[in-house]
Amino acid sequence: MHPKPLSDRTVFIPRMPTANSRAVAAAFRGHGIRAKITPASDSRTLELGQAHSSGEECYPEIITLGDFLRVLVDDGFAPSDVAFLMPTSSGPCRFGQYAHYIRVVLDRNGFGDALIISPTSSDAYEGMGDGSKGLNRSTWWGIVSADLLTAQLLRTRPYEMQRGKSDECFEEALSRVCAVLENPARTGELSAVADALRWGRDRLRSVEKRDETRPLIGVVGEIFCRNNEFTNMAFIRLLEGHGAEAWLTGLREWIHYSNREDELRLRRKKSLVSPERLRSRVRHWVQEGDAAKLEEIFSVDLRDRPEPTHMKDLLTLGEPYLPSDGALGEMVLSVSRVVYLHHHGVSGVVDISPFTCMNAIVAEAIYPTLTRDLDGLPIRTFYFDGTQGTLDRDIGVFLELARSYERLRALAGSTAESAVGLVGT
Ligand code: SF4
User: Fold this and answer.
1) Which of 114, 365, 371, 423 has the most CB atoms around it within 10 Å of its CB?
2) How remote is the CA of residue 326 from the centroid of ligand 1, in Å?
3) Residue 182, exposed/middle/buried by CB under 10 A (0-12, 13-18, 19+)?
4) What mean pLDDT do residues 163-182 have?
């Protein structure tokens, strides 16, 4: 018997983060695929995920596995009615094994009919568009839109006069974008997504804010952990509670990076004019063009939170520490992003990663050198495995370091100014 096609199943998408995953699910629905995000993670997620793991797996794998199992065990979906989206990668760490491992667990537990969809970073997730023309493109619009709205939310929430107002406006804004993405009549209309995004930007702009200066803290690290609120124990909200503003690295950074790796892979194959290379170039070019149009909507609101224009520019910053042609994946991005964030005036950087994450361990080994070279910038890795009892206190301690760094930077700035004044007299 043939397995049920995707069109007859519900596709479950892990929350990475919730906003981006909701937008991706909406784009899927707009192309006729029933799609939902996985249920909000809770203690049951951990119970199921840990029961079917050996303890050697990364924390994000336990969370995604636990949430997939909840759909089958607790929510009663028949395996033949569901598909789970589990992206993969051929990079240097365990991420490439997640989809295979989840397959084994599902098979062993009688859920063999459940499908796993695994778009891969090896072809810059081109497989996302299989079987439905345009899906790849509107998925990209969803990812960029959610990134932009999240950046504006983080720019707004720490200063809101009325508690909860920013989250409320963000929810309305995101829902408006999702409504466009899931409307089959508007599929393929970038201008409709842009209109919804403009509306959302204005909703967030309408939030009344206090005039206040807060330390700006850059957030880098493992993509799932830094983006999934359950996994990182709502780290950014805790940071805001301690008086900081967060500058979170968006999801689209990874797609731009995968695009670049794809380009290099094809170049290494010396496929100068192959159809594959041409297709890849066109896709990247279209993605960059679409992202630029959506980013333009926030050119005023996010002018001091810019994204690097090209991935190459970002990686060049990390080159002296971790050359991007000698290392791969998130370790390169985290190290490069720290330098980028320093150039843009942050008072500290936190790396949010799972306990035993290979990428984080390598990056953490480089951070002391970065601190030395970047005027003493405080950088700290926060590891997560669900057992962080002292997180709130640790964030408080880190922010004290960030505030001291700010004071010293201000002092150095005023000393330099007086020196210039003396020279001028
Ligand atoms: S990035 Fe880190 S946490 Fe994620 S799979 Fe790789 S080693 Fe595990």
Assistant:
1) 114
2) 18
3) buried
4) 98
pLDDT of residue 268: 77
Taking CA atoms only, the protein residue closest to ligand 1 atom 4 is 95
Residue 419 CA, distance from chain mean position: 43
Nearest CA to ligand 1 atom 5: 95
224 CA from centroid of ligand 1 (Å): 9
DSSP codes, 151-170: HHHHHHGGGBSSTTHHHHHH
Q: How many CB atoms lie within 10 A of CB 39?
A: 15
CA distance 392 to 387: 13
Nearest to 342 by CA among 216, 232, 237, 258: 216
CA-CA distance, 375 to 230, in Å (whole number)? 34
Which tokens is 182 given?
């899931």
Atom index in ligand 1 nearest the CA of residue 330 equals 1
Distance CA(425)–CA(420), nearest Å, equals 9
Q: What number is the average pLDDT over the span 139-166? A: 98
**What average pLDDT does the structure give for the chain?**
91
Q: Rounded to an integer, what distance in angstroms lies between the CA atom of residue 148 and that of residue 293?
A: 12
3 state SS of 422: helix
Tokens for 262, please give them: 């794809």
Residue 127 buriedness (CB in 10 A; 0-12 / 13-18 / 19+): middle
User: Residues lining ligand 1, judged by CB closer than 6 Å?
Assistant: 58, 60, 93-95, 222, 330, 354, 357-359
Burial pattern 274-284, b for ≥16 Cβ within 10 A else e, equals eeebeebeebb
Lookup: tokens for 215: 């330390």
Q: In angstroms, what is the span from residue 187 Cα to ligand 1's centroid? A: 34
Question: Rounded CA gap, 285 and 264, in Å?
Answer: 15
For 230, the 3-state DSSP assignment is coil
| DSSP state for residue 350 in the 8-state scheme | E
Q: Which residue has the CA at smallest separation from atom 3 of ligand 1?
A: 357
Residue from 16, 56, 358 whose mutation best tests the ligand 1 pocket (most atoms within 8 A of CB)? 358
Task: State the Cα angle at 324 between 277 and 144, rounded to 5°.
Answer: 65
- Please, what is the end-to-end C-alpha distance for the chain in angstroms? 89
Predicted pLDDT at 119: 77
pLDDT tens-digit readout, 183-212: 988 878 999 999 999 999 999 999 999 999
Residue with the smallest CA separation from ligand 1 atom 7 is 357
Q: Return the bridge partners of 216, or none.
A: 245
Q: Stretch 81-90: mean pLDDT, rounded?
A: 88
Omega before residue 215 within 30° of 0, cis: no
